[in-house]
Design brief:
globular, five-stranded mixed sheet
Length: about 500
């Protein structure tokens, strides 16, 4: 075996080992978060319940209050349905997300191997797995769009290797993760036109991407979600009155290009762009053509009035990460050519040092430590919550605060308390009807997202909760501490009649 082959095998082993380590560490962290009720939003629960209902022939999602394709076109869930049927737990989704994100390192390694000398590809794949925006995305709930990160990396690899069938498959999988990915597909077709590629590489992505985006935005999603969840409201800063549809958003940008650009380039937005590119030593900026497909997504993020879309703590960087890393590959290669020196290894060493610094600056170690500390600190509360859930029957209809939603998502009738507390659907001014025939209500009074000033706090929220309790004739079954459980009065009578007392499960 030649020394070059041996070096290649060692690089493959290194990337495989680090990918396994990433999967183990992130998998354990996600498991610990789930087991100790640290998922405090409703995204994981939404997709878990959507899969539960899909396996029973329904596309409804009671947590959202709309059919799940009306919120986002995440057809990739269909591929997960058989696996979820065998392992019906939100943990299945968390593990799948971790495994697929980890697989992105292999795609990046193979891509970089064609453009950079050894051991640069292995180092860059390692940096990918240490990249703070990737880690935070993995830790934050479950989102189908996060999977597009890996699918897009494999699409870029197939494009580089001129493998049209693999390219098409990867793009289709990416588009199935969320409707806005089709805009990236369109831009990749335009990039192929600039590269003078043939129709399968250029025209086909442009036509298919435009067709799918139009079908989703103007037909399928409005039919399933007639204004209940209003995503256009997050672009309220672009026009007065605020736009009420995607068409009006585009029109507002066209009419007010200067003010729109000024809003998109505010300091906090530029800081977000810096947090994405600085860990790679800004080398991505040396290959602007590689970043071309990200323009629609960048506009989507920078023009939004939701602060969460311009931070690496969530999942909104999913569509950008593949292109940032591929651009870095070409930027590093270009750096070496421009200076006519083999500077790639030096550049990678510097980038590795910057990445390590970025990990500390962005508090990634603290994020992991906080998960362990919360689990240890709230052992008693975790035990109480777990025992409480064992008393909730599988067919019971439930209203709950965020911590409980993932654990209760294997049922068709589940509502998030924050909708009732605020009185409106998510991102909407449409009133949320108080649900009736509720069997159980579980409330954590210290839920920061529901009741916090920076969450969904509203002055009249307590009145809405009182109304919910009154309409459903609820009586308390727990006292003391932040945990408050209520059961419908009729269920207690039925349980007593059957000799089961309060230990009988509601809904059974």
């Amino acid at each position: 075996m030649s020394s070059r082959s041996a070096e290649h095998i060692e690089s493959v082993r290194l990337v495989a080992a680090i990918s396994l380590l990433y999967t183990a560490v992130l998998g354990i962290a996600c498991y610990l978060k789930f087991a100790t009720f640290q998922y405090t939003d409703f995204d994981l629960a939404i997709h878990s319940q959507s899969l539960h209902n899909m396996l029973r022939g329904s596309i409804d999602c009671s947590i959202l209050g709309t059919p799940y394709p009306g919120n986002h076109m995440v057809l990739i869930l269909i591929l997960f349905a058989p696996l979820y049927a065998m392992f019906s737990s939100p943990l299945t989704l968390l593990l799948v997300q971790t495994l697929i994100l980890s697989a992105g390192a292999a795609a990046l390694f193979l891509y970089a191997r064609a453009h950079l000398p050894r051991p640069c590809p292995a180092i860059l794949a390692t940096i990918y797995l240490l990249y703070p925006p990737l880690i935070y995305m993995n830790l934050y709930e479950f989102h189908p769009v996060a999977l597009a990160t890996t699918f897009l990396l494999f699409a870029l690899l197939a494009y580089d290797r001129k493998m049209p069938r693999s390219y098409a498959l990867a793009l289709v999988l990416a588009m199935a993760c969320q409707e806005n990915i089709s805009l990236i597909v369109v831009m990749m077709g335009i990039r192929a036109l600039l590269d003078r590629r043939s129709a399968p590489w250029s025209l086909l992505p442009v036509i298919s991407g435009c067709a799918w985006f139009a079908a989703c935005i103007f037909w399928i999603m409005p039919a399933l979600n007639p204004g209940t969840v209003g995503f256009s409201s997050i672009y309220s800063e672009l026009a007065d009155p605020p736009p009420e549809s995607f068409s009006q958003v585009v029109l507002a940008i066209v009419r007010h290009p200067i003010s729109s650009a000024g809003y998109a380039l505010r300091p906090e937005k530029l800081l977000y762009l810096g947090s994405l590119t600085l860990p790679l030593g800004l080398t991505s900026l040396l290959s602007p053509a590689s970043l071309l497909p990200t323009l629609p997504i960048l506009a989507q993020r920078l023009l939004s009035n939701r602060g969460s879309e311009c931070t690496i703590l969530y999942h909104y960087q999913a569509e950008l990460i593949p292109f940032i890393f591929v651009a870095a590959v070409h930027g590093i290669a270009k750096l070496g050519r421009i200076r006519r020196l083999d500077l790639q290894r030096t550049a990678l060493a510097i980038i590795a040092a910057i990445t390590v610094l970025a990990i500390n600056v962005t508090d990634v170690p603290t994020a992991f430590a906080r998960i362990a500390e919360e689990a240890e600190k709230h052992k008693q509360l975790t035990s109480q919550r777990t025992q409480l859930l064992t008393r909730v029957g599988p067919d019971a209809s439930v209203v709950a605060t965020f911590r409980y939603l993932p654990h209760l998502s294997g049922r068709s009738r589940l509502h998030s308390l924050h909708h009732i507390y605020t009185g409106y659907y998510t991102l909407s001014d449409v009133p949320y009807p108080v649900p009736r025939d509720i069997d159980v209500i579980l409330i954590d009074s210290d839920d920061p997202l529901t009741f916090g000033i920076n969450g969904f706090f509203t002055k009249g929220g307590h009145t809405n909760i009182q109304n919910l309790l009154y309409i459903n004739q609820m009586v308390p079954v727990t006292r003391g501490g932040p945990i408050h459980a209520f059961v419908r009065k009729g269920l207690l009578k039925d349980a007593a009649h059957h000799g089961g007392g309060q230990d009988r499960r509601p809904g059974e």
